[in-house]
Specification:
homotetramer; mainly alpha; 9 helices; 74% helix
Chain lengths: 174, 174, 174, 174
């Protein structure tokens, strides 16, 4: 889910310098994959049963996450060029939508009185993130650093771990 | 089980265009792998015990699935050329036969009154798919788009999740 | 544990031909990895407790198995050249010794009355294989096809699944 | 977590020779990854519950371990050149600090009377290792073989498996 950091041919600092944008993109994507891994872990743990619909919503999420190495590598290797930055944001946007679909799918399969629904609550982060990604995609055509800044801000916003599900369900060891 | 999407050198739309056939093949194979992953998950969950024969039938299936990155990459990178398209279909055909063998192997190991046998029922999808793959392989020598169309149709046919096993067994969380 | 099959540049049969030795090596290694995976699965399932020594014996086995992609690729890409064939056999030999060490380590940790010891019995396959690998390595300097033949024969010898452990322990689903 | 050993083009001993530094680095990193895998396994097994903080401390450790292929490949492919050797040590240092943070995080989440705290004891290895890595990084600017020697010594120091946690908790099969 994270791109490979190819080994440079030289052995000095100068040969590391062109790798910096890829490394920064790598760190950013590693954090995003970590956020998804951690929340996805709690989400599936909360699901009482796995229906066919949930399996497909999960596969849809995995599809968009599987594009992270491509979009990260393309953005990093081209030093945040005009087109790769919004494409990176588009993959983030689709993954966020896919995560929300999966969450709704699990809640729907649990019927009324869903524990997950109570745990998720208003989910302001899940509602704000897609909006911020769209702003970032639009901004990237104006100044690419604005897009990168928004991607970092959203990641930091999620880095505060999602204690909601944990609080309601998570006393058991996963 | 899915080919790597190599990062193009350019950073504009023109450098993405030649990737489109590979990307479409990637999506198709991702769906196929997802179908196998989901059904395989239900299948092994239904198996009461894993005998040596089941392990080998499972390994045979994994072997053909392990060729997906090669056949997908070959078809996609050559823009659906005359030979790679039927080879892709051949790998799909062998995987379908291997899946059927695994299913029969598990049913046989369960003896009479097999829960899985009841769950699988007539398995018309499992019987129709190999036939359609053979049609696609034959058609690909005439017009490659016919083969691709059939591959997509079979995938869509399976996308309706296999609720049979789920209905009989699957109330428990896997 | 199995080498990557790189996609050839051409799209005709002629571009597949040079891949044949690599593909045959790939199939051979896939079978070997499958044999180890299946028996290793039964072996660890039989282990009552995992001591530090067992973990390291396991890591030693994983180390030699991790060299399979290299030795397979080197033998296949060089079309069974004089040096890569015995190197392939050497890695097989070391993996076989490592497997035997792991087995002894688990038996030792179980103390007298070890269930695994009874299940393994005389283990004539485990004793014969290293001897055959040494013969193959020696023969490869004379005629490489003799080495390949022995590798195939040993694989076929193991393909008959190891029902010993299964018989004594394996009624439970793993 | 371990770099890929690329297959050389030639088929003789001469084509293996330039691979030796990479192979030695591969073995060293394989041992380090094995040490982390084994101790990490015991550590998480000892953790009674996984809080959000623990998940992030775990992700931090995984991040530094994910840089092993890069740092190993860079050091090995450049035959222990002046810069890659201390960079390899820096990644080892950060992984050691991340492991210690994860351990403290789990102990803190267990509150007073933590079983893990008792199991870990004085943890002289965990305290000595970062110090030795810093010495190795400093020494590498003077003579690179001193750094490599220290990396090997620390690995050997850890190869004696960590029986502390095992002794207090580990009678159950993990």
């Amino acid at each position: 889910m994270v791109p490979e950091l190819r080994v440079p041919h030289g052995a000095d600092f100068a040969s590391l310098t062109p790798l910096m944008p890829l490394f920064l993109s790598y760190v950013l994507s590693f954090v995003y994959v970590g956020i998804y891994w951690s929340n996805h872990h709690h989400l599936l743990h909360a699901a009482q049963r796995v229906s066919g619909g949930v399996l497909w919503a999960n596969l849809n999420l995995l599809f968009w996450l599987s594009l992270f190495p491509f979009s990260t590598g393309w953005m990093g290797e081209n030093h945040f060029a005009p087109l790769p930055s919004p494409v990176y944001g588009f993959v983030l946007l689709m993954a966020a939508i896919a995560y929300d679909l999966l969450q709704q799918c699990i809640i729907a399969s649990e019927g009324p009185g869903s524990i997950l629904k109570r745990a998720v609550g208003t989910d302001w982060k899940g509602k704000l993130s897609p909006f911020l990604y769209i702003v970032a995609i639009a901004a990237s055509f104006w100044a690419h650093w604005m897009a990168q800044t928004i991607y970092v801000v959203v990641a930091l916003m999620w880095l505060v771990p999602d204690r909601r599900i944990e609080r309601v369900i998570g006393d058991a060891k996963p």
